[in-house]
Amino acid sequence: MTAVEDRLVTAGRAGRVERRGQRRRRVWIAATAGSYLLDTLFLAALAYSGAAPGRIAVAFALGAALACAGFYAFTALDWNLRLRDPSLILPQTVCGVALHTAVVFAVPGIAFPWLLNLVTVLAFATIWLSFAASLAMWAACVGLSGLLFYAYSDRIGVPLAGSGQVAIVWLLFSVVLGRFVFLSVYSASMRNRLHESRRKLAESMDQVRELVSHDELTKALNRRSLMARLEQEKSAAARTGLPFSVALLDLDEFKTINDNHGHAAGDEVLKAFVRTVHATMRDTDIFGRYGGEEFLMICTDTGLEGARTAAERVRRAVAAVDWARVAPGCAVSASIGVAAWKPGEQIDQLLGRADGALYEAKRNGRNRVEIA
Ligand code: GH3
Ligand code: MG
Ligand code: MG
C-alpha cells in the first residue's frame, strides 16, 4: 500500500469514529429531551393536583425544548467538533441546573422533591466533566439552593396534600433514584470498556514489540536485534576488555531440502533447527536468524577457543537430530564460521571474517566448524 492510500485509510477510519461519536451525542441529547419531557409531565401532574401553577410546566417545557433543540442542531451541524467539549457537557449541565432551580424559585412549595433533580444533573455531569468543573457545578448548586432556602424559608415545602400529591412525590423520588442508578451503571460500563481497550492496546504493543525484534517464522531474534546486540557487545568489550565472539551458521544444501521436500518442509526444518540451537546453547549467548537459512550466535564473554567449542556442540546437536521425523528422508547439517572480536574492529569486519571462515567450512566439505 502506498503512503497516500495508507493515509486515506487512516482518515476514513477517523471519519467513521467521528460519525459514530456524533451519532452517540445526538442520541444522548434526545434522551435528555425525553428526560425533560418526563419532568414536564410531573410538573403538569403537580399543577393538576394544585401544588403548582400550570404555566410553570409550560415555561419549563419551552425552556427545555429550546435548549435541547439548540444542542441538537449545534451537534447536527458539527459545530460542536470545534469545541474542546464537543459533547457540550458543561453547557448541558448549566442548563439543567438553571431549569430545575428556576422551577423551585418559582414554586418553593415543591422544592422537595424537585431539588433532587439536581442529583441527576450532577451524576450526568460528573461522568464526563473534569474534577474542577464538577466541583464548580456542585458549588453552583450549593449557592443557588442556599439562596433559595434563605429567601423562601417560609414557603419551602413538600407537596403532600392528599394521596394524589403523595403518589406524585413518591413517583418523582423513584424516577430520580432510577436515573441515578442508570447513570452510575452507565459510567461503570464505560470504565470497563476503557479498561478493556487499554488491555487490548497493551497486548498489541507487545505483539508489535515481538514483531519488530523477532523473526516471524522461527521466533528467534531477527537481524535487527542481532545487529543491535552486536553493537552493544562491542561497546561493552571495548570498555571492559572482556572478549566476545560470533559464530555464523549456514544450513548445508538447504536448497536441495527445499527442492526435494517442499518449501513447507524447509520451513519446518528451520524451526526445528532453531529449537535445537536454543536447547543446546548457553543461556548467556545470543542467537537469531541472520537471513534465509543463515543464523548468528553471539558468544558473550567468550574468546575464539570457547566459541569454537560452543559452535562444535551446536553442530553436533544439529547433526544428531532425527531429521526424518521433521521431513521423511531428510538429513540436515550446518557449517559454522567462528570469529573473535579484535579490539578496534568494526562489526561488519568481524562478520566478514566469520563469513570467510564459514566459506572455508563449506569448501572443506560442510558439516564442520572453521575459525577465522
Ligand atoms: P550451501 O550448503 O552452500 O549453503 O547450500 P545451500 O543450498 O544451503 O545454499 P543457498 O544459499 O544457495 O540456498 C539457500 C536456500 O535457502 C535458498 C532459499 O530458497 C532457502 N531459504 C531461504 N529462506 C527460506 C525460508 O524462510 N524457508 C525456506 N523453506 N527456505 C528458505
Ligand atoms: Mg546461505
Ligand atoms: Mg546453506
User: How far is the first residue's CA from the last residue's CA?
Assistant: 44 Å
Ligands in the model, by name, code or SMILES, are: 3'-deoxy-guanosine-5'-triphosphate, magnesium ion
User: Could you tell me the mean pLDDT?
Assistant: 95
Domains, number: 2
- Reading the helices and strands in chain order gives HHHHHHHHEHHEEHEHE
**What global shape is seen?**
rod-shaped
Tally of extended strands?
5
Rounded radius of gyration (Å): 38 Å
The largest sheet is: 5 strands, mixed
Number of helices: 12
Portion of residues in beta strands equals 5-15%
Task: Give the arrangement of secondary structure elements.
Layout: H1 3-48, H2 54-76, H3 89-106, H4 111-114, H5 117-128, H6 131-151, H7 162-213, H8 223-240, E1 244-251, H9 254-261, H10 263-280, E2 286-291, E3 294-300, H11 304-320, E4 334-340, H12 347-363, E5 369-371
Parallel strand pairs: 4-5
Antiparallel strand pairs: 1-3, 1-4, 2-3
The structure holds 3'-deoxy-guanosine-5'-triphosphate and magnesium ion (2 copies).
